[in-house]
Amino acid sequence: AESKVGDILVAQGNSAEAIRYERSSLADFAAIAAANVNDARSRRELAVAEQRLGDALWQHGDRSEALSLRRKALTICEDLSAADPENAQAQFDLAVALRNLSDTLAASHDLSGAVDNFRRAVGLVSGISAQEPANMNRQAQLAEGLISFGDLLDRAGRIQEAAQETSRGLAIQSTLADSSGASLDEKLAYINSLLTCTPASLRNPSAALRVAQQASSLSPNNPDVLDTIAAAHFALGNAAAAVLAEEAALASEKALGPQGSAGTGQIELNLKKYRRAASKAAKP
Fold it and tell me: Could you tell me the pTM of the whole model?
């Protein structure tokens, strides 16, 4: 319960108060793990608690302790993975811990260390997904990881490697989005990647618009889909069409009431940007 309260406070941006709850939670989980030294679940919960306190500390600006906690969590996950190498969840937990550490190192301007840890994470998820080829969720996780890894490599100036990893991720997302049973989330993930992935040379707004229009036929008046249609039009240089789609997205979002309120602000910001561009394009 303490941990959940801490998570909510982090989401609200109240890191100072979140730290208090997360520290108390971590102390409890540490005591449980100490009393059950051979219990894998207790140690896993301890690693998760360390990650959560690290998140709160990072948000609060305490980078040093946040990095230390993420290293501690990684050590636990490495031990659990080594103790049960056939346990897919343990392998995935290790991949998550590696990626979290990579994100922290990247934000601390240690791109070399970030790349090394992210590469290990991708290798683990790739192995897990290969063992579960019918698990579409694992495939989606691998694709997202590859595209994020491509972004990190691009930031590190390793453009050729970045293009290779991003291309692998896009290929998986394309297969998932084009499958007969594709979910809306899978289509939206592919559309977003086609519009924002790095290197930028791999972006394809025309393909993004095509997939977004397919998604619209599956979920008419869905604000997320309409928002991506607008983004695709804008990327293609058609600001007027982007305005129309974003206006429809805003109307649909507002029609959802409290359920849709979280995305209203961003849609309104996008609409202002598109309207400015359309106004400039209309001037002689």
Answer: 0.89
